[in-house]
Queue: 4 jobs
Job 1
Amino acid sequence: MSRIGKLPVEIPAGVNVELDGSSVNVNGTKGSLDFTFSPLVEIKKEENQIVVTRSSDEVNVRALHGTTRAVINNMVIGVTKGFSKVLEIQGVGYKAEMNGEDLVINVGYSHPVNFPAPDGITFDVTEKNRIITISGIDKALVGQVAAIIRKIRPPEPYKGKGIRYQGERVRRKAGKTAAAA
């Protein structure tokens, strides 16, 4: 039995969960999310919690059990608190700024990179245009947008310049002069 899958998902006050077969719709103060799950797992609403059970002990059904419960839990957390990822920009002359809803990033290319905000995502640039906060209610979408922005200029191993997650450690390499000495 999945340790994650067997835990019930608590529904806080102010959150409305609607089940329609294998489709789940979660409404809260920050917005609404819906997702359609595999029919191999059964989703039931009991009082103020959601319980996920599986139909058999096959490997793929066991994998879906914990994943389904985790996605439903992330949906409930997303519509109540929301999710955010923080990116840091390091490098001389590297910066980010807002242009309306769009994010404009200058990271050493001959042109600024314009990144439009997808639906449900908001950007915030602070601290001398070096910290980017990506916020939204869908955890997967927030993580995907953060990964795409990081991919514009990933941190390089020699000087550490580039875009990185907050708290990310970049393995540094010694340059040519250190190898020759």
Note: Helices lie at 59-80, 139-152, 176-180.
Job 2
Amino acid sequence: MKSFKERISDVVKKIPRGEVLTYKEVAKRAGKQYAYRAVGNILSQNKDPKVPCHRVIRSDGKIGGYNGAFGMKRELLREEGYLK
């Protein structure tokens, strides 16, 4: 059985370019509906470029953090067509 961290990675890898999910949606799809803070903590430590964690945003529509590089997350989402 996969760990919660592995299930999060699987969910995030499936987010198409130019689209986003919220931390809460990722938690739910990974099998732990209320573990959205854990999702944020896990993704904040992601170093795998195959896991596009910049495509995960806050439930209020704000961008949220990105490994300490807020501007980088915004730029990646802009390049992918999510932000204008």
Note: Residues 26 and 38 are 10 Å apart (CA to CA).
Job 3
Amino acid sequence: MLSGVLKSAVAIKVHIQIIRVFAKMKELLLTHRDILLQLEILEKKFESHDQQTQLIFEHLKDLLNLPQPARNPIGHRTKKEE
């Protein structure tokens, strides 16, 4: 990354912020992984229960894998584009 090579104060601040963002992303991914592992453990533990319990686990997994919402484009729009 260019901000790691440049020596200005702004470049150093940007580089630090980038590292913080990647660390936060890693933390979030590990958190979700832990949740999924715990769900699998619970699912195995209660495997003998009725179908409604299985349906709850399926819905919880679906909630963790929701697609990202579509974003509106950034920028100025002309009358022709609207």
Note: Residues 2-64 form one domain.
Job 4
Amino acid sequence: METKMNWGMGLFIGMSVFMLFIITLAVMIFRQDTDGYDHGYYEKGLDFNADYDREQQVFTDGAKPITKLVGPVMNIAFKGEVKGRVLFQRPSNEKMDKQLMFRSDPSGQVEIPLAQFARGRWQLIFEWSSNNKQYLYQQKIFKP
């Protein structure tokens, strides 16, 4: 005995599969534990303002550091005696990021050996203080 499926049964099966799909999506959405809201939004905004002020202080005081790659060493010339840190960020691999503390000599010179750094592009983020002022400066370099 051969049974044929009529259009009503096909419509019922199609609607059932669609409803099952919608219910599955709803369950998946409600099981997610993140709400997409950044709870630290206000604090990040305040940090951004502080960073912006420090970046502007560099230009106000004409305190932009001058970097020069000389062989396996990077020479940095600051406006005066400084103390701070430099963050080396590798855009292609964040596991290679390094942070170094530095203190200049009285003339504002700092030497950083680059032997431990891989060739390629690096993003440098300098943060330093001098004469009770805070500074922030970002620069890209290419280490040959």
Note: The first strand starts at residue 66 and ends at 70.
